[in-house]
Design a protein that fits this description.
The protein is an alpha+beta fold. The chain is built from 5 helices and 7 strands. The longest helix is centred in the first third of the chain and has 14 residues.
Amino acid sequence: MVNHCKCGCGSIIPDKDKRGRPRSFVMGHINNIRIYKPVSKISIEKRRRTLKEKYPNGKPAWNRGIKCPKEVREKISKKHLGKKLSKETKNKIGDAHRGEKNYNWKGGIYDDKKGYVWIKTKIPELNTYHKKYAKRANVIWYENTGEIIKYPYFLHHKNENKKDDSYKNLVKTTRREHFFTHHKK
């Protein structure tokens, strides 16, 4: 027995498929039927208002909080292996995670291995070893005296606590003087 497609196209189809199941549509024609009733503009606005009340900052992503399985991550990394990114794309990626936007940002302050505190500063004369950072002690000395500490001299902490960078705790010394303050006979 032969039937017509129920989408209204007029195509003739067999009543059963290869597996013996009843058929009503030509393959792909089920999408042509309008299953949903028409929606009025009022109901759309009402739905938008309820969504804004429910999610004031926007609806969260469907996959938020779900971790990607290890196999999927490996598959994605293999897919991207060998692909070249343009300089523009690399710069965009870099800018998205630079400075205050970085997940590891600590307010422009960090401690080095020797115990000194470094801060981000815009005074280029103070930036000796790093492009944008200077020792906090040197910045405080510069703010109080207007003097930049250069090679033969450096700052000594009176109480020997390198994190205590108050102006009263700092003394300008040479290497030789500093050696004798710590190694008295």
